[in-house]
Amino acid sequence: MPDTPVIWKDEELSPIRDKVYQYVKQAIVQGIYKSGERIIERELADQLNVSRTPIREALFRLESQGFVKTLPRKGVVVSKLSPEEIIEIFTILAALESLAMKMAAQKAEPSHREELKVIIEEIDQALTKSNFDQVDWKFHFKINDVICRAAQSPRLTQMLDGLSDYIRAFVHLGYELPGRLRKAMDEHRDLAKAVYNGEGELAESLTKIHLENSKKAYMEALERE
Asked: Hey, how many other C-beta atoms are within 10 angstroms of the C-beta on 98?
């Protein structure tokens, strides 16, 4: 659980329930809350400097989306997916995300390509460092943001948003395998380069390879638990 009190800015106060929802959701997605970890309303309310009402509303919303679940005598805990569910989600995500990458490569405007160029340079710089434990998530979010805008398909973006957040919330385990985090960064860089160069077919293929590797890493790490 986060241990630093959150100070909400004035412009962030309305609606507070949405801010709380986004905060908790991102904490799950980024692995701050682990699968199976208990989320205590009182502690979270103190942490976020809010009443327990928006906390309950946020947790109810997250439960309806499958991020958390309520267990008897334990309360609210972060959901843990079965291997079958993980495989199903990766299969769906591979189909949608590879399509988005292909469309982005075909439709990207100069401004989108310039953003990707900057990301590629940042990844190259990060790969020269010995400690980049959380860096890959930053690039993952940045690339996905540019790709969704470059693909110019609001419906596809909407479908990807919930699904990609959902899978990211439960695949941190795969990054614990030796070498997987660096390999994922290499894969993200190659994906960004393919889209930047307008190589739609290559971007589509690399996306499927990346997600297959991510799925295998997660399943392997799951077996080690």
From this structure: 20
